[in-house]
Write a structure and sequence with these properties.
The chain is α+β, with helices and mostly antiparallel strands and 520 residues long. Strand 25 and strand 26 form a beta hairpin. It is globular, with a radius of gyration of 26 Å.
């Protein structure tokens, strides 16, 4: 089997706010859009994607981030049958294929029947219907018959295998596909989808454990040990830098580190404590933690100095940011406008002011490079039960330089959590409305006015540290203008780093413009 048709045309209204700005197929699960789970499972197949709702978003997103062979067809009708006939026209005669709903995530180790597997030579005799086995479906298939009856044991999950496209020759342009199959009296062999996950409603999605780990890593816990391992080439590259940072920090006698048991794989103590943003603290407690944290970072920065590498400064603050922005420019709504009103502030669009941004970066000065953490957001800082801070998840590089960089980058990353609430944003704990783009549904609050075109509303849940901004500048002694400039740049640079979620790409861009306007 070489071809897979994905029905990705549904609105996903039962996922409520998650599909205001994007189709259901791009809602992330385990740090990866649902559709891309299929791509990763079948990287050598040819995908035909049926698009309808927010189809322009789907097309632009796939053009930037899909790494498989694919075609997109626009659905003309309505319902789950819409677009299926058009999709089958792209499949050669006598070729078996899969038809699957975009909100199904098949289990690791799922095997296709003989004839549909790669490397099997058996003639394909049967069509197959996937039976849910573990989650309820509105239709069931039992004893060779479809029935519109809710079922788990015999649920029709939205997964089919066909021996050739003639099986769907008469499928209508609109309507419910399973109902049409029932009316046609179509017969199937059954294949169990045990272990498959389906995310049709918000309640099912919210039951997920929110991952704090990037999609290129996996983490596990073994007793009192925390283990972090890369799962792809990008993860391995970052893991090498992280291991090198811990080795160097330990050799310097840095005290605010977790116990490291091994770096192959990275195995450290399971810290008894919380990430800073998870702690419920009063201002006095926050001040004490901030004092300890700033003191620890200052000692870190003072351990060793290297000459400033201005090529790395330029790359870290401008080159990388411009490269990331260029990859997403065409998919962000309003990115072709000279100005965008964000949370009531009229903001100049950086794409029309790149020369000004470049000059401001070139004007930044750095006396020397210090040993830096490189990513000291609250997500990468923990507080032990006794109140002592612990540095985890170092970046290990700055621009082209390993281990050493501009100390202001550390301060700007800390400010990113204090004033910017990055950590809640990273957990997708935000709401984004884009005038002329976001779809307002029955789930939208009646009292919530629609935004005008060219207007954006971004609301991020607070880390509850905004009241420490003045204390931050007092304790660090950092220059306000430089930190706020770098803070805006960091948000803009987050766009492609947060590629697994369309809303995060757009939200990071708009937030970057919002903070950049403050200091332009």
């Amino acid at each position: 089997m070489e071809y897979i048709i994905v029905q990705a045309g549904g609105k996903g209204t039962r996922l409520e706010h998650l599909t205001k700005n994007k189709p259901k197929a791009l809602v992330p699960v385990d740090n990866l859009p649902m559709l891309l789970h299929l791509f990763h499972m079948y990287p050598n197949k040819k995908f035909i994607i049926i698009a309808d709702y927010h189809k322009e978003v789907l097309r632009k997103y796939l053009s930037s981030f899909a790494d498989v062979k694919y075609l997109v067809v626009d659905a003309q009708g309505t319902g789950t049958a819409s677009g299926v006939k058009k999709a089958t026209e792209l499949i050669p005669d006598n070729e078996p294929f899969m038809l699957v709903w975009s909100d199904l995530i098949l289990p690791v180790g799922f095997e296709l029947p003989e004839g549909y597997k790669d490397g099997t030579s058996a003639d394909v005799i049967d069509n197959y219907v996937g039976i849910s086995s573990t989650f309820p479906c509105r239709w069931k298939y039992e004893n060779g018959e479809f029935a519109e009856e809710r079922s788990t044991e015999h649920g029709v999950a939205g997964f089919f295998l066909f021996k050739d496209k003639n099986q769907l020759a008469d499928v209508p342009e609109s309507g419910e596909l399973v109902r049409w199959m029932q009316q046609q009296g179509m017969k199937y062999s059954e294949i169990s989808l045990t272990g498959t996950r389906e995310f049709g409603i918000l309640k099912e999605y919210e039951a997920l454990n929110v991952s704090k780990c990037r999609p290129f890593n996996k983490v596990s816990i073994n007793g009192d040990k925390f283990i972090k391992e890369p799962i792809d080439m990008q993860g391995e590259k970052l893991a090498q830098r992280e291991r090198a940072w811990y080795d160097k920090a330990r050799s310097m006698g840095i005290e605010v580190l977790p116990k490291i048991y091994s770096t192959q794989p990275l195995t450290m103590e399971l810290i008894s404590g919380k990430n800073i943003y998870e702690c419920d603290l009063n201002k006095t407690q926050k001040r004490l933690i901030l004092e300890k944290l700033v003191d620890a970072l200052k000692k870190l920065h003072a351990k060793e100095n290297h000459p400033t590498d201005y090529f790395s400064m330029y790359e870290a603050y401008y080159g990388k940011t411009l490269d990331r922005l260029s990859k997403v420019q065409n998919m962000i709504p309003l990115a072709d406008e000279r100005a965008i009103t964000i949370n009531g502030r009229k903001c100049r669009n950086v794409f029309f002011h790149l020369e000004d941004l470049e000059k401001r970066v070139e004007a930044l000065k750095c006396d020397h490079f210090s040993f830096i953490h490189g990513d000291c957001t609250f997500s990468n800082l923990m507080v032990r039960d006794n109140g002592d801070p612990v540095l985890i998840d170092p970046r290990g590089y700055f621009g082209y330089t390993q281990l050493y960089g501009d100390a202001n980058y550390d301060w700007a990353k800390l400010y990113y959590s204090i004033a910017g609430n990055y950590d809640r944003f990273n957990l997708k704990d935000f709401d984004l409305d884009i005038g002329g783009h976001s779809i307002y549904s029955e789930y939208t609050e009646d009292s919530k006015p629609k935004l005008d075109a060219g207007e954006v509303k971004l609301s991020i849940r607070s880390n509850n540290w905004e009241d420490m901004e003045a204390d931050f500048f007092e304790l660090t002694g950092a220059d306000k203008y430089e930190i706020k400039l770098l803070h805006a740049i960091i948000w803009l640079s987050l766009t492609t780093y947060a590629w697994q979620d369309y809303d995060s790409i757009c939200g990071a861009f708009y937030n970057g413009l919002y903070y950049l306007e403050e200091i332009l």
